[in-house]
Amino acid sequence: MSMTDQSPLGRKLSAFVALSDAELAVLAGLHQRRRVFVAGRDLVHQGQSKQAAYILASGWVCSYKIQPDGSRQIVDFQIPGDFLGLRSVLLRTSDHSFEPIVDIEAAEVLASDLLKAFADTPRLATAIFWAASRDEAMVVEHLVGVGRRDSDARMAHFLLELGSRLALVGIGSKDGYDCPLTQYHLADALGLSAVHVNRVLRQLRERGLVTFRDGHVSFDDRDRLAELAEFDSTYLDHEGPLLK
Amino acid sequence: MSMTDQSPLGRKLSAFVALSDAELAVLAGLHQRRRVFVAGRDLVHQGQSKQAAYILASGWVCSYKIQPDGSRQIVDFQIPGDFLGLRSVLLRTSDHSFEPIVDIEAAEVLASDLLKAFADTPRLATAIFWAASRDEAMVVEHLVGVGRRDSDARMAHFLLELGSRLALVGIGSKDGYDCPLTQYHLADALGLSAVHVNRVLRQLRERGLVTFRDGHVSFDDRDRLAELAEFDSTYLDHEGPLLK
DNA sequence: CGCGAAGGCTGACTTCCATCAGTTCCGTAT
DNA sequence: ATACGGAACTGATGGAAGTCAGCCTTCGCG
Prior knowledge:
By secondary structure, chain A is α+β, with helices and mostly antiparallel strands. Chain A has 8 helices and 10 strands.
């Protein structure tokens, strides 16, 4: 199976374990029940129970929690190749919501099919658990950012992390990437107000570090940006395949 | 096996699945290699690789990340019955550190033993994954708190959550619990300065909501405290066993 | 066409929390 | 017995980010 044939998930997992053709075939099998969802209408809503998991094939999604007072915290963004709702399979009710940011395509995966795939191809299972662990590490890093970084470093770190993640599934380049997020999304993710997000972006642009404009992020000076963010990507753990 | 014989982990898992004697025996088997660690000396250090997982038997631990600038963010506290480092088994290097807050006892669990237990007793495996999912949900809720709650609500929420968790493993009562954390721990966990933590605690005490003094938390008015915190415990998911 | 909604952008004012610079209290090691 | 270190505690001051209020542009649509 050639590189270009691979799903984004296949591509991502290949960075961790070298998957055999048989394993790739099982993975492809999980992509059967393809569904389309429109931007803005929640896929899963907080408090809902017993929903399937999804593998995102194209488009962007965010997972978030709404507070009783109406404010929301975006926990993470999902990009092609990411799982949605893998964790909440075991908890009775989903503790958060998923909103497609643009129109998306996703493969619905039934818990039973997933478990069968795990039993048949343990290496694939390991790879998927690796991906889940990495997602959790990103949430932790997100928490650190919100708790301990000022708004500039927070934004810088966020934009760099996103760039790294996209690169891993073959989207974007060293210099930047297309990004459909609004300043409101950034605000809800970073724990800032939309007004302040705007000011921070302006500042970073004027300092010649990054430009986020018209749905595109350009790294104007990646090194200085990484320095400001104190960006250390080891938690993303992609140094080439571990298991041959 | 009677209730009082159970390890804290057994007790916690029993709230999710009713475990058979055979399953409880396997679980007890995982507690073989008992070790003791002294307060303050890190169990696992950020950047370290290939360490075992642990089941905490007694005492308190915190997991945290240190920033290059020296500030630290505590990600979570572990109490008896919690796993340490379950997630980082798959990532090459641990992305965070574990520090015992008091002297602790913990069972060291080798990855191979854990996998064998999973293979032999799938229901136990499910229960442990449930616990892992719940831990992740707590980190998410923590992120929400740091991102979207002001310092009072944040503290209130934290103290209530901890009370709920302790109750699940049979520690503390409806009215309060013993708690060895210092105000510095609270500050590092909640993304506040120690000075401000002190003020917030004073305020909550003066308003007659909670008293945290001399290593003991007392809920003076649990209802009003929960209201201030907008505490909704569904993410903790303990409404009695799901699987009979 | 023109209206409204969504997103981006900005200035003025306010608030929450960090920082600095201490003091007090206690337990323990010299 | 006293000196020391860790933790709790406090007042004064400043700064980072929130809130409020408003303007401009673009784009879809009645």
